[in-house]
Amino acid sequence: MSKSIVTTIGIRKMLEARAGIAPLPCITGFAFGDGAVSDGIIRMPDPDEPYLRNELYRQKIDGFQIMSDTCIRYTCTLAKGTLKGIQINEMALYDADGDLVAIKSFMDKGKDEDIEMAFEIDDIFYKEGSVDG
């Protein structure tokens, strides 16, 4: 089963934007890596470690789709020759500042050199439990 987190830096940026302290940089791309699986076990990303365990490649997003009032789906397609022969098992969304703001770990996905591979990440905000008090 995949594991996803919003990084602490991503949360800080959202809070600062809401308070009017700083503008919120937009999501601009995906980062891909192969360091999230060890001995067949998916390692949970750490919100306080805003990086992939073994980042290999960054690419701009193809686009996004508004799925609902609380969800936007970002897409990215790796071209045929990109990351060929790699077992991809971690990816992240990065913003215009280059910071990883959301990280997802999952089981190995082999990337053949003769196929394109599309990835999606849903950026979701839950209505329940979003304000502590």
From TrEMBL:
It comes from the Bacteria. Residues 3-112 form the Phage tail fibre protein N-terminal domain. This is Phage tail fibre protein N-terminal domain-containing protein. The lineage of its organism: Bacteria, Bacillati, Bacillota, Clostridia, Lachnospirales. InterPro entries: Phage_tail_fibre_N.
